[in-house]
Amino acid sequence: MICLPKIPVISVAQMRQWEKATWAAGRTEQEVIQEVGRVLAQRLLELSQPGDAIWILAGKGHNGDDAKAAVPHLRERDVVLVNVDDPLRGLAEFSEKLKTSGARKPRWIVDALFGIGLNRPLDEDWLKLIEAINHCASPIFAVDVPSGLNADTGACEGGAIQATLTLTLGAPKRGLLEAPAFTGRLEVAAEIGLVCCPIESELNWTAAAEFAGLPPRRLASGNKGDYGHVAIIAGSLGYHGAAVLATRGAQRAQPGLVTVFPQASVYVPVAAQMQSAMVRPWQPEMTLPKTCRCILFGPGLAEEDLPVTVKEMLRSLWRHSPLAIVVDASGLDWLEAGRPEVEAIRAITPHPGEAARLLGIPTREVQAGRVVALRRLSKKYGDCWVVLKGRQTLVGRATGEIYVNSSGNPFLAQGGSGDLLGGYIAGLLAQPAWQEEPLQTLRYAVWQHGAAADYLARTQRNWSVEELALWLGRMPA
């Protein structure tokens, strides 16, 4: 059944409610299990090559049934199915297979021991089996939830599988977002044969399908004046690269014009690396181009002796300018609390450390309550849009829905990655068509940024932010 792409983050009780609605509609559990098996197999086929060994550790509940239903569809794969009714016998069989496999380890170990219903501490025998699986050299594919993890809270029930990838079924469960050390990469199999989800949530998962039809079509008669002008106030002594990367990000969004205003001390190195973007040294009392529609303020403005007039300019623009404004990096510290005096797009893009500094709390508190932190930041700065960066970046504001980004990987943790994203966001928001729905625009930018990183991670052993800039915006939804 094809449903709308909106995917809520839900509790275990809500998942059960969804399942009951499906059975009430005439769909059977067995039909859904068979569909889940096909979905699991399809993802495993994508992650492996013909001849690869895939070991499935199936428990006695429906989680194990789902994994067993995948076996007939795993074409040209060497599938080993271990039915685990008893943890000690399962451990013995698993250990023996590891011993006899020699150098040919499984390409994937599929964890289907326990599903989302687990809500009690595991006994010692189960913990021994889980420890053995975790210490195996092969990557682990968790079905729905890593075994041993509480799907509501993200707490470990004594111990839990440390998955490389978790493919959760139907919708993300709240606990999976709280336990990255166990879930690994989190993916969602939304279409598994259930009826359309009857649950609504303040927190929603971002599905690539939501961006179908983007970017907006351009008319053949259009010219650069139709697609906006972005001004980037960025770059100071020792940090000129941030201005360059932010400009590259803006260019990837394809606005009509881009002008970057670095501090005079770094004008030459910034200008030397630009071609289609215009470069003018920042000056006190300067005026922005009349055609400007969006301003990015902050990347690379970390020089200790930065003129106070730079900070004053940002505060004035934030309060009074009718233009869309995106504030990142050092610029975040110069904002004043309160609502701007004009109704215009305002967005901030802090990472967890910056968010903690703005709220006056420890970074760990931000990470432990990311939704709460986002709401507080937005409220503090006048209901602005907030892109709270980090693993599974959040996008939203003080009220309304918040979206969890589904793309990206740990290799985005490189200097300059955020500058590139800030520029890309501003480059999109400079364009009239992208200003109509700011939330969608911000989500699209964040998703493209992460999806480009995912593409690079799949296709090459290592990559730089400069290479990320080349792929930004090219990912199909």
Kindly name the structural category.
Answer: alpha/beta
Q: Measure the end-to-end span.
A: 20 Å
Q: What's the alpha carbon Rg, rounded to whole Å?
A: 25 Å
Instruction: Quickly name the level 1 CATH class of the largest domain.
Output: Alpha Beta
* CATH domain topology of the largest domain: UDP-N-acetylmuramoyl-L-alanine:D-glutamate ligase
Number of domains: 2
Percent of residues in β-strands:
5-15%
Low-confidence region ranges: none
Q: Which CATH-level-2 architecture of the largest domain?
A: 3-Layer(aba) Sandwich
Give the strand order, joined by hyphens, for the main sheet: 1-8-17-16-15-14-13-12-9-10-11
- The fourth-level CATH homologous superfamily of the largest domain is Ribokinase
The residue-averaged pLDDT reads 96
Biggest beta sheet attributes: 11 strands, mixed
Descriptive tags:
477 residues; alpha/beta; Rossmann fold; UDP-N-acetylmuramoyl-L-alanine:D-glutamate ligase; 2 domains; 11-stranded mixed sheet
What are the SSEs and their pairings?
Layout (H helix, E strand, L loop, with lengths): L6 E2 L3 H13 L4 H18 L6 E6 L3 H9 L7 E6 L3 H15 L6 E5 L11 H11 L5 E4 L21 E5 L4 H4 L2 H4 L1 E5 L13 E3 L23 E5 L6 H13 L4 E4 L6 H6 L5 E2 L14 E4 L10 H13 L3 E4 L18 E3 L3 H8 L3 H6 L1 H11 L4 E4 L5 E3 L5 E3 L12 H13 L2 H4 L2 H22 L5 H7 L6
Parallel strand pairs: 2-3, 2-4, 4-5, 5-6, 6-7, 8-17, 9-10, 9-12, 10-11, 12-13, 13-14, 14-15
Antiparallel strand pairs: 1-8, 15-16, 16-17
Helix pairs in contact: 2-3, 4-5, 8-14, 8-17, 11-13, 14-16
